[in-house]
Amino acid sequence: MPPLLQVVNVKKSFLKPSIFSHKKNTIIKNVSFDLKQGECLGIIGESGSGKSTLGKLILGLEKPDSGKIYFSGQDINKRAWKKAAVRKNISAVFQDYNSSVNPYFNVGQIIAEPLDIYEKLSKEERQHRINALLEQVGLDHSFYERFPHEMSGGQLQRVCIARAIACSPQFILFDEAVSSLDISVQSQILTLLADLQKQLNLTSIFITHDLTTITYLCDKVAFFYQGEIVEYVDKIEQLSQVKNPYSKLLLESILGF
Ligand SMILES: Nc1ncnc2c1ncn2[C@@H]1O[C@H](COP(=O)(O)OP(=O)(O)OP(=O)(O)O)[C@@H](O)[C@H]1O
Ligand SMILES: [Mg+2]
Fold it and tell me: Which of 6, 89, 142, 189 is most buried, with most CB under 10 Å away?
């Protein structure tokens, strides 16, 4: 079976933020990797190394300067893909749950956003689907009418996860999705994500600073440093055998070996 996601020699630069120069900063240098259906890749690296930029390239929010990204064998930067209904197969959950929802929408409306775009459901079907999604993320039906300011961070992130899985996507990108939650809520959300991954046979990428999150959820790990994958660990069990000095340092600092 061909990989679900293929990233091939992707490069991305941005103009330096100066009115006096037109020089570019290369943020993503030459990144390639494949991901098969059902796999979960963790991407770890320091702040500013380009992880979120790579995420945005994969979601099609940014366009690579060169290189290609294929989803189910289709180039996501081709016009045909941008219009295709198959785009609903790609979804995302970001760190900042507050700014990723409309504060004037209630939970039902937030979760229904992708459903309203990609699936034409009757009023009853829509309501039924939203309630089922609430249950899937561990919230009871009473949350349907609540607004974002009436919920805790953990509850709102659950709503964002419900929205992300609403159209049964094949692939979800999580960019620091648990980082701003406190430790006990983080572990609840991680348990939920691990369950959903199994239930839905999701393919996912988990961008994080936190290696323990990766060891909990991921099958593979890419160590990202200054816009490059400096080490790719194909089997999470082999994590302690990393060779690159940067990955070693990161492991030592976090796990103490
Ligand atoms: N649209 C943009 N225009 C110009 N520069 C950008 C843009 N997006 C990102 N950058 C720059 O690219 C670099 C990498 O940013 P990115 O957000 O990808 O890092 P990151 O690894 O996700 O960091 P963090 O762990 O802090 O989230 C930063 O220097 C950032 O300023
Ligand atoms: Mg980031």
Answer: 189
